[in-house]
Amino acid sequence: MAPTTCLRIPFLPARGRSANVNAPPSWLPRRLSLKSSATNGPFTSADVMGADWKGLKVAYQGCAGAYSEAAAKKAYPNCEAVPCEHFDTAFQAVQNWVVDRAVLPLENSLGGSIHRNYDLLVQHSLHIVGEVRLEVHHCLLANPGVKIENLKSVMSHPQALAQCEHTLTGLGIEHREAVDDTAGAAKIVAEHMVQDTGAIASSLAAKLYGLDVLAENIQDGKNNVTRFMMLARKPNILRNDRPFKTSIVFSLEEGHGQLFRALGVFAQRKINLTKIESRPHKERPLRVSDDCSSLLKNFDYLFYVDLEASMADPKIQNALGNLKEFATFLRVLGSYPTNVNEP
């Protein structure tokens, strides 16, 4: 069976906050209505861990054979994985009821954070309802008959290229070409029958597109793991009967020690932070401050923080209440069970 075509949808602006975001819009065809009984209310950790997700539509970025597709099927076994051309397409597909969920990458142990998805979290009103980790094993692919010594260039997703940089240099492959996803690179190489260009993708992509695997496990580090977030329109039911993680984003006024003060509200309550990430504030990229002698223009930042706690815990509720007293912006992105597929 031919690989599924990537989903392309026209831009559909998110509905205003006054609208009922949990009700299907009037233009939604009946066949796209949610089928799982688990979606009739907020999700529980049991829903995320053990449900039979048959019939659930789950968006991922890339073409068939992408690592994100494998992550989607690991997060939601038996789901219908729906390929999307871009990250923002997947966000829009969930928010506008074209699909039920999305599974998208947030960070990789070798390549670091996927900054685009951090930005999109703020731009859309979706909730993180779970996370899943996937071991990534990169392969060097080429058309049948092509040898490694024939390759002058290689194409793949920028993260995959970065994760294999030293290996590619050692193989004498000089040129790199970035494309939207790993499986898409394999598809391009196969469709154009190029003889001097390879692709970095999965062994599954090699099978799907009829390519040979010239080398396996070509990533520079042995432990190559990507963490994916599971997105939905509704949040989880708050509970603390198992390890939970809560993700927040906030911004602060300019001033000495403001970030120290913000992080202190969690330290005082012995709430562990597992990640902190800063991104320039898109709506307020620069702030002007008076440094006595001259006016300085500095970046205004959003801070993304992951906490080892459930929103059901009074400690984190108190901490966020404290933070809200002096933060200029604060939003809970999700409170969810950690790595739902870990044995």
From TrEMBL:
GO biological process: L-phenylalanine biosynthetic process
Keyword set includes Acetylation: no
Domain of life: Eukaryota
InterPro entries referenced in this protein's UniProt entry, alphabetically: ACT-like_dom_sf, ACT_dom, Chor_mutase/pphenate_deHydtase, Preph_deHydtase, Preph_deHydtase_CS
Major subcellular location class: plastid
Segments forming domain ACT: 247-337
Catalytic reaction list: prephenate + H(+) = 3-phenylpyruvate + CO2 + H2O; L-arogenate + H(+) = L-phenylalanine + CO2 + H2O
Single annotated GO MF: prephenate dehydratase activity
GO cellular component: chloroplast stroma
Domain Prephenate dehydratase: 57-233
Pathway per the UniProt entry: Amino-acid biosynthesis; L-phenylalanine biosynthesis; L-phenylalanine from L-arogenate: step 1/1; Amino-acid biosynthesis; L-phenylalanine biosynthesis; phenylpyruvate from prephenate: step 1/1
UniProt-annotated location(s): Plastid, Chloroplast stroma
Function: Converts the prephenate produced from the shikimate-chorismate pathway into phenylalanine.
Official protein name in the record: Arogenate dehydratase
Organism the protein comes from: Zea mays (Maize)
Phylogenetic lineage: Eukaryota, Viridiplantae, Streptophyta, Embryophyta, Tracheophyta
